[in-house]
Design a protein that fits this description.
This protein is an alpha+beta fold. The chain has 19 helices and 20 strands. It has helices spanning 37-55, 68-86, 97-104, 111-138, 147-169, 174-187, 209-233, 246-262, 284-287, 290-293, 298-319, 339-343, 377-381, 394-410, 457-465, 486-494, 522-534, 547-568, 602-607, and strands spanning 279-282, 328-329, 349-353, 363-367, 387-388, 416-421, 444-449, 471-475, 512-516, 571-574, 581-590, 597-599, 616-618, 625-631, 634-641, 651-660, 663-672, 682-690, 695-701, 705-708. Helix 4 (111-138) crosses helix 8, helix 5 crosses helix 6 and helix 5 (147-169) runs antiparallel to helix 7 (209-233).
């Protein structure tokens, strides 16, 4: 039937006549946005299976794996609040930090509870951030306009980890000792500090209180960066779920309280800088890199850091394919209803002044191609069919479906029509795009669409009124729409809660069905489709879990997550140990100034400023400082250390670690700071006992002399 046919009142609404003949084809809806799409879909099946298992007992509102981002932000908020409260008891000093944290355990229902909540909310945040990132990756939600969310999410994850890393530093226990030493090892490779940062962590007395306070300040300041990162991360999303809703918030808080009471947070032993090879319980959510910082050099640590950052940051650009065209607005058909603007999940649509000269409506919709994800939800929002994705426009699709229905009825069939989301169980159907026939769903005419939200209510209405026995729309799994809100908008339109509504005066609501099935549930789709073919009014939707079952499942899932978080937060770790013992020799000492001086000529003196007219100039460079170490009369180390500074006039710095057999040894240390290689200006010799896996530190200062620790 031609689009321009006008029927009697109460009959079918005609299609609006297009401005020009519409010859655009109805294209496939499942074109891959990323390279390796098939592999991604296979790997994503693990999450879909998890959703299916949990979904049998819990509604989407109580399924934590469908709200990973919101749970992470809620946990972060709890960690921030409890961190501020902990300042009541915490002493930000290298001398008082450990004791102030230890004393919190003496008040288990106040300070101790706050400390445990602070730790486990941080751990829970990291857990769900990790799950969220992995899920987004496997669901390929990093391609196209989503690149910004991916990059800002990656940066936010890095900032979150740094926050936890510095937080554990502030406890100043054995874990903090390894954090400090590992951080110093990495930073010493970067030419930031005049002296090696690692020298500050050789002895307990050498730890700088000012540096400790700087770490405390950074730990308090970094969360501001998290806030900025989250703002950017969610900047292109409409109606983001910043935090969980009440039922899930109760679940999250209950989980944290359960874990905090059952397994209170504890510290390792106090930091002792001369002890090596310690064993302690470690929070692997944040401290896993200790296994690398204890074993790798600073250069390799930076190489791993930058390589990992480049790989993660390049994912959207390396794996994305050339994108399809963005949605296009036909200004002459736009009546400024603003429904597409309100429905777009990614704020890709703006209302701008008219461009077609019309004075009937003041504004028209405009699509930003850099934000459009090509989901087609706006097509299902527009009552006048004024906005479309070019490769699957609504008018051509309607005609195609009606032709399928007419052909089937001409052959004596009473067909059903189905619109299947390309991310749902319908993605695995064997379809003939020309005839709509489907091997797995006999008796149906099936069209694959980019999102269930693309399906316009009038498209369903017209198909049924043209002769289809019923209409079925297959969406993504419950609560996990690939394009966030498409399935929600579809259900609200069908139930009359959101425009454009299904006109029940023209088509019976019971003849329009929806099925929420993820990609792994093709068998369930075929089964439900067969039931509907036998009875077009049958209820094929899955009933929600009973409240009793949901309550039990919530508790069981909370216990499982709490056990996972608690176990990983205190797994055993043993640092690498030397085969015997270690002797560390360190100094910071200036070599003697050069005697290379030259008298200035009268002309040179006159050319200088008045306050700089000295009679002679001397070279600024100092002599290298030499170190020689002997053990039981046998030399084991000899080296000269060049002066620091741009002009070679700074201090020479040495940090040398020497392997020593356990036992008592006669240690002789000699230091020479002049140009004569045979001259040793400072000498120390003493008998030193070395314990198995122990470390002794010898320091030198020209004022204090030698010291052994």
């Amino acid at each position: 039937m031609p689009d321009s046919t006008v029927e009697e009142a109460g009959g079918l609404e005609p299609f609006p006549a297009p401005a020009a003949p519409d010859t655009r084809p109805v294209g496939p809806a499942d074109a891959a946005d990323v390279r390796g799409d098939g592999l991604f879909r296979q790997l994503e099946g693990a999450f879909l299976l998890l959703d299916r298992v949990v979904g049998r007992a819990l509604p989407p509102a109580l399924n934590p794996f469908l709200q990973t981002g919101a749970i992470a932000i809620t946990s972060l908020a709890v960690a921030t609040v409890t961190g501020v409260v902990l300042l009541i008891w915490y002493s930000p000093s290298v001398h008082g930090a450990y004791s102030s944290v230890a004393e919190m355990s003496d008040a288990p229902w106040t300070a101790g509870l706050m400390r445990s909540l602070h730790r486990y909310s941080s751990d829970l945040c990291m857990l769900f951030v990790g799950v969220h990132a992995l899920r987004v990756f496997l669901e390929r939600r990093f391609a196209g306009p989503r690149w910004l969310a991916w990059l800002t999410g990656t940066l936010t994850l890095a900032v979150l980890w740094i926050t936890g890393w510095t937080g554990y530093w502030l406890v100043w226990d054995e874990r903090a000792q390894h954090i400090a030493v590992g951080t110093a090892r990495a930073l010493d490779v970067v030419p930031i500090f005049a002296d090696p940062m690692g020298r500050a962590f050789l002895t307990d007395a050498g730890v700088n209180s000012l540096l400790f306070f700087v770490i405390f300040f950074l730990h308090m300041l970094i969360p501001l960066g998290l806030g900025i990162g989250l703002w950017l991360h969610l900047g292109r999303i409409a109606r983001p779920n910043y935090v969980t809703r009440t039922p899930m918030t109760i679940w999250v808080l209950g989980l944290m309280l359960l874990l905090s009471i059952a397994y209170p947070a504890t510290s390792a032993g106090p930091a002792r800088m001369t002890e090596v090879g310690q064993s302690f319980g470690m929070d692997y959510w944040y401290l896993l890199p200790i296994a690398m910082t204890d074993r790798l050099g600073g250069g390799l640590l930076w190489a791993i850091f930058w390589a990992g950052g480049i790989v993660l940051g390049s994912i959207p650009f390396l794996l994305s394919r050339v994108r399809r065209e963005a949605a296009i607005v036909t200004p002459s058909r736009c009546n400024a209803c603003m429904q597409c603007y309100q429905d777009c999940p990614y704020e890709a649509i703006a209302m701008i002044p008219r461009t077609d000269g019309s004075t009937r409506y003041p504004v028209e919709a405009n699509v930003d191609p850099d934000r459009c994800v090509r989901c087609g939800i706006c097509s299902g929002s527009c009552d006048t069919v004024g906005i479309d994705v070019p490769w699957l426009d609504v008018r051509s699709a309607r005609r195609r479906v009606e032709e399928w229905v007419a052909d089937a009825k001409h052959a004596g069939e009473e067909p059903l029509v189905a619109f299947v989301c390309a991310q749902s169980a319908g993605a695995r159907l064997t379809l003939d795009s020309e005839t709509g026939l489907c091997e797995e769903m006999p008796g149906y005419r099936v069209m694959q669409v980019p999102c269930a939200g693309w399906v316009h209510t009038q498209t369903l209405e017209r198909a049924v009124r043209r002769g289809a026995a019923a209409a079925l729309v297959v969406t993504c799994g419950d609560g996990d729409c690939h394009y966030r809100e498409g399935a929600d908008w579809l259900h609200m339109r069908l139930d009359g809660q959101r425009a454009p509504v299904l006109r029940t005066e023209h088509v019976e609501r019971g003849l329009v069905h929806t099925l929420a099935l993820d990609r792994t549930r093709l068998g369930r789709l075929v089964e439900r489709a067969a039931v509907l073919r036998g009875d077009p009014r049958a209820n094929v939707s899955t009933p929600p879990p009973s409240p009793a079952l949901a309550g039990i499942a919530s508790v069981v899932l909370a216990l499982a997550v709490a056990a996972t978080v608690g176990a990983v937060s205190d797994l055993g770790y043993t640092a690498p140990r030397p085969d015997g013992a270690e002797l560390v020799v360190t100094f910071k000492h200036p070599g003697r100034s050069s005697d290379d001086c030259r008298a200035l000529t009268p002309e040179e003196i006159a050319a200088r400023p008045v306050h700089m007219r000295q009679q002679e100039v001397c070279a600024r460079r100092r002599s290298p400082v030499r170190l020689r170490v002997s053990l039981d009369g046998r030399p084991v180390h000899a080296r000269a250390y060049p002066p620091g500074g741009v002009w070679g006039d700074g201090n020479s710095v040495a940090v040398e670690t020497l392997d020593v057999p356990p036992g008592t040894h006669l240690v002789r240390i000699e230091i020479g700071d002049g140009p004569d290689p045979e001259q040793w200006n400072w000498t120390e010799e003493r008998s030193v006992e070395f314990e198995e896996h122990g470390r002794r530190v010898a320091t030198f200062d020209r004022l204090a002399g030698f010291g052994f620790h």
